[in-house]
Write a structure and sequence with these properties.
Elements (H helix, E strand, L loop, with lengths): L1 H36 L4 H31 L3 H15 L6 H14 L4 H19 L18 H36 L3 H41 L1 H15 L24 E6 L15 E6 L37 H14 L4 E8 L3 E8 L5 H5 L2 H8 L5 E3 L8 E6 L8 H5 L11 E7 L4 E5 L6 E4 L6 H15 L5 E6 L23 H25 L4 H7 L7 E6 L2 H7 L1 H14 L5 E7 L9 H6 L2 E4 L5 H8 L12 E5 L7 E5 L4 H14 L15 H4 L7 H11 L4 H8 L3 H13 L21 H5 L31 H6 L15
Parallel strand pairs: 2-3, 9-12, 9-13, 10-11, 11-12
Antiparallel strand pairs: 1-2, 3-4, 4-6, 5-6, 7-8, 7-15, 13-14, 14-15
Helix pairs in contact: 2-3, 2-4, 3-6, 5-6, 9-11, 13-20, 14-17, 16-17, 23-24
Length: 828
Amino acid sequence: MATNRSPRRHSTRASTKAAGKGSSKASNSKKRSSAKGGGSGPFSRLGEVLSREAIGLVLLVAGIFFTASFVTGRGAVLGEAGLLAATRTLGVVGLALAPLAVLAGALLLLGRFPGRRAAGLALLLVSIAATLAATLPPQTRFDEAVYPDRGGLVGSGIYGALAVAGGPVGAALALLALYAAGVFLLTGLSPRDSAAGASARAGSAASTLREKLRDARERRRQQGAQKVRQASPKRARPAQEELRGVHGGPSESEAPGALPEDAGAPPLQPAARVFDYEGGPEGSTEDEPEEPFEIVLPEFREEAGLDEEGPVIPGEYSLPPLSLLRPGRGDPEHDAEGTSRRLTRALADLGVEATVVRAVVGPRVTRYELRLGSGVKVGKVRNLQQDIAYALAATEVRILAPIPGKSAVGVEVPNTRPAVVTLGDVFREYPAGNDWSLPVALGKDISGRAVFFDMAEMPHLLVAGTTGSGKSVMLNGLLTSLLLTTDPRQVKMVLIDPKRVELSQFARVPHLITPVVTDVKKAANALSWAVAEMERRYEVLEKFGVRSLDGYNEKRPEKQMPYVVVVIDELADLMMTSAAKVEDAVIRLAQKARAVGIHLVVATQRPSVDVITGMIKANVPSRIAFAVSSQVDSRVILDTPGAEALLGQGDMLFKPVSALRPSRVQGAYLSEAEVDEVVTACAERAQARFVEEVTETRGEKEESGEPEDELLPDAASFVVATQQASVSAVQRRFRVGYSRAGRIVDALERKGVVGPHEGSKSRSVIVTELELPRIFDPEGSGDGTNPGGPDGRAGGVDGDEGAFPFGRFDEERGTGGGDPYGAPRDRE
């Protein structure tokens, strides 16, 4: 028994000892591996961060150094070596390595630069270098001299290998693949994601197109329903009567055109078509408004006989036919139903309870009349202009809060497609038998009715607006209206056009007193002549005991005194050169010239307070404002905002002297061809006879009371010959004192020899040597005075009471028989 137990105990101890030895060996191996590997856990991660930051710092510093070296060329040996290595390796692309190194270093420091983006950027650089190398001929592709200007050694090598392997086509396809791989790696997109995004965008576009087509079909269906209701007035009558009973409209005996409109509307206006909107056919109840509302469409009316030319009587002036004007084309396109729904919904979202009760469709805009809910303030709607424009996706929205003469708020929204209003359209509604002295066709109002006004009742007009807003077209329409409706014996014109091209078409009309004035100095002289003519006319009226031009013409029908219309196309140019003289003349004419038949039309594209001064505004009561850039400019013109919300291209706010608020009008368009036809027709009927004294400088010798210097003619010859119009030059040449030389130069300026003082610059010489005898001839009329009267003013015929206002022109015309306009051009 003993012998059997001892071997087992021995084996057990041996196995235990062997297991202990094995475990101790394993632990020792782990310790050795741990000591050899440097450990694991946070220390290893810290080492990785430190190494990344070190690399990023090195890249950032090196990139900044080489970028500055490449730009300034002051990198010494290291900078030159870097430039040579970069351009020889990658060519032009190598210059981008330094800035890219700065970017890579910064991203490494921030810990946001994955290797995938670095690989994509590298592929793009290599692809660009290979593309540049592809532009070289094969024989020079590996020439070291061309490496810096193309793709370098790398680009030439890659493209050369691709071209040898697959030819030009294979090389191009391989480069495209490299570009695509670089873009996908750099952006993180995959071809599958790109295809999915493109498919989603195409689906969204198709859905939007389907919605637009559905809306278009709905609009056509609603328009067809309107035409059906228009063709069945008997069925619409009960709805109209019910609507009138609810909203207080006109009675049954009144015509449809007798709907209430704005207060102060001009008379003799055409009627309008009225429809009651009650939705489409049955089954479309979801798009119907809650309450019915009126849609007032413009109705175009044509007077009989407008295209017929009047009888031509020998020796008499006949007006040009209105058939020279062309009609417009097309009706306005609108979406009154859809816009009214969107407007009501937008106001509800903004916390305003309102319903659309009426839509008045005009040629350019449609006015939606809103009836506000109980307790809603009008000012709240007025402050929502920009929000409403956003909700309706409109360019500009104008709010009338409230509409004058109505318990409603107006929202004016541009039409989908505006109608073209021409001067021919407006004159087709010209009222026959009117008593207007100076009729002018302006355009059509918000209801599509023609707007006329009498220039004699304005009595002066201020027109302002930015470039391209329609100001010049409106002036052409004003002058053309006067040519079509007035006789040259009734109206005379003075046209001042410093821009030289706007009014040049009217240079041949017989209504002109003087040629179109384009010189700024002559323009100031023309205004001074108008002031002198106004004073002379007042003396004539005082002598005959009458108070106005009409009273004088009624008392002396054999010697009629015509109206005078002075048109200034650009006031800003005159105010910049002769501000004091021009402003004084405009103010005096605006204050006193109405009674004697002289009327001003002042236009400018700079509606600022230094051009339209307070005194000019106070004496020019009628205003027309076109589109301006700010509320400040609108207040300068109209004393109220609103012009900043206009649409341009003839869209205007018209405020005559008798109106409390401006009204919106779409100006009449007139082409240059139509203007030329009307001017030619007028020129064939009579010739213009000009009065040269209108633009000549008036003599101030009698006004100052100083005798003329005896050296003045010699000084004028010296100044013209030497082109030196300075006081010191005259003083040295004639050896006179400084004061006397200054008086001589001032006298030369008064006579129009030299221009005004321009600071440190020398005065400009205006005349030539050939014009000096006319100026200094004591026997002629060129002494600067007006020969029309003995006192130097624009007087009448010698020996006459002064009934004829144009000097020698009236001596030639006389008061007897014969042709007062001269022979027509075809009989010369």
